[in-house]
Design brief:
50% of the residues lie in helices and 3% in strands. By secondary structure, it is mostly helical. The strands form two sheets. A two-stranded antiparallel ribbon has the order 1-4. Strands 2-3 form a two-stranded antiparallel sheet.
Length: 288
Amino acid sequence: MNRMTTALGAAALALAIGFGAPKALAAECGRNGEGFEAWLAGFEKEAVAAGISKAAIDSSLRDVYYDRSVISHDRGQKVFRQTFEQFSARMANSFRVSKGRALLQKHAALFKRIEQKYGVPGPVIVAIWGLETDFGSYLGDFATIRALATLAYDCRRADKFRAELLDALRIVERGDLDPAQMRGAWAGEIGQTQFMPSSYLKFAVDFDGDGKRDLVHNTADVLASTANFLHGYGWKPGAGWDEGEPNFPALLEWNKAKVYSKTIALLADKIKGDTRASGIGDPVETAR
């Protein structure tokens, strides 16, 4: 799954993993909103069986309803066809370069600490930050849990999104965010660099030590968690990140569409002031 729409690119959809909860507790799926309430009641039982507290379940699901606008976005996706030249010219633009350099300087001490811990240099993190949400300026306005519940009920990818919905409840349970704070893209991505809940649980860090992993409001947590994601996928300190270099595979884990990952690399090069450019010419065909 890929983040290929606007600056609100979004975090990679990690493959859902099973948590041992009986699938039969929730109706498998539906193709319209008519059975959603019954499905949600079944899902609540599944969440209890998965070990999630009743308090987290109640606070997260009390106002959830079937969101037709989420289904409309899901069904309205088109195959993405742009060359690297076309996509990078639009996304790795002068605004993101200048803003990225300014933020790199503003948070220099923070980026130094992050690189010391995770090995990922500031220009790469800033490039992702800029491409995903224009440096946190627009995170999306969909209620995350409602969106995930809608997609978990929908038959197209029910198992995947049911796992993501369970993970969203776990984020609430461990106190990182409350449900009202969880707003983002229509497919459930959260925060300034757009983590899916499964990636949030796995890679989000409390870098400032305030007791929460807050990827919506806390800049230190956002940037360090982004670095931790890349570190978790084998980022090699001191190595290059353009296509063909040791760290490009980690960028592909961030987004498996090569044109997007190459654009991260190019924008990072530009923010760093590097005259190199990633390879060009490959079109991409992908949809979320």
